[in-house]
Amino acid sequence: MNPSLQGYSAAVLEDAAAHDETARLADDLAAIDQVIGRTPALRAALTDTAVSATARRAVLLELFESKVSDGARRAVAFAGATVRAPEVPAAATWLAHRAHLAAEGVATDEPLLGHLDARTRVGGFAAAIFEDLATDRLEEVENELFRFARIVESTPTLRTVLTDRDVPGEVRRGVVDELLADKVQPATRRLVDFVIDAGRTRDTVGTLDWLVEQTASARGWRVARVTAAAEVDGDERGRLSDSLSRLAGTSVELQVTMEPALLAGVVVRIGDLQVDATARDRLERLREHMTSGAWNDSGFAGAGSGTEPRGAH
């Protein structure tokens, strides 16, 4: 099944369980599956490749409004917008079956996926979480995820525990419990837990950083990761943010970390784009220029060796 839908349905099921509504969710999804299966016109519309994903989602949201629980309606609409058109009926059946197993108390572990698919599954889970969050809360989640990723990245022992596939999942979850209990928003905690449970273990830090970008995107922003040699003050942040926003073609939010080894300037990363404007980079390029033969070509080949420079009289 589509990895994004796997993640989204996991969040919906988690919400239902928290409110003791898993049985109702299962019944509603089963009813939706039956409606799609028994209504040729609806089935034809949902499987028509000429109908856009946005239109399919709108049709499903409108059709089942006030008829089923919000979770069931959102889940099937997400499926309609996410999977390929011919697969929408099968996706509805899959959702109903997964909810039925949950209602029966049957545990279903998330299957092991490759690097990109695992991130996509986490993204589907995040999409469901983000739908219920206001913009200011999204910003808090983004900052909390960023800070936690930096803690994991900069703490070798913690990083080893959370990225070691041989460490049992319950142990890694226990470590996260101790670190984050009552210190972050519930949404942040749910996202980190899902990264531990359903992400690629060795990609834990990478997935957390990817989630930071997804959270920023949900607010209509792009994340610019700025590594600076010195503190970036308010005015500098404003000018840098404006410049990067023009470069990216959208509003940009800065996430700044310090690295004195850069000597001066900043390194900026926005998605696949990297801009290095540091003194260290300029020195490296100068060194490469000199070692490539430019020093000899400059007319000072013999300097310091007792040989007169070319052109000397």
Question: What's this model, at a glance?
Answer:
The protein has 313 residues and is α+β, with helices and mostly antiparallel strands. It has helices at residues 3-18, 22-38, 40-46, 53-63, 70-82, 88-103, 115-130, 135-154, 156-163, 169-180, 186-198, 204-218, 234-248, 279-297; strands at residues 222-228, 252-258, 265-270, 273-278.
Explained architecture:
With 313 residues, the chain is of the alpha+beta class. It folds into three domains: 3-103, Peroxidase, domain 1 (Orthogonal Bundle); 115-218, Orthogonal Bundle (Peroxidase, domain 1); 224-280, no CATH class. The chain has 14 helices and four strands. The chain has helices at residues 3-18, 22-38, 40-46, 53-63, 70-82, 88-103, 115-130, 135-154, 156-163, 169-180, 186-198, 204-218, 234-248, 279-297; strands at 222-228, 252-258, 265-270, 273-278. A four-stranded mixed sheet has the order 2-1-3-4. A hairpin with a 2-residue loop joins strand 3 and strand 4. The radius of gyration is 26 Å and the shape is globular. It starts with a helix and ends in a 16-residue tail after the last helix. Residues 294-313 have low confidence and may be disordered.
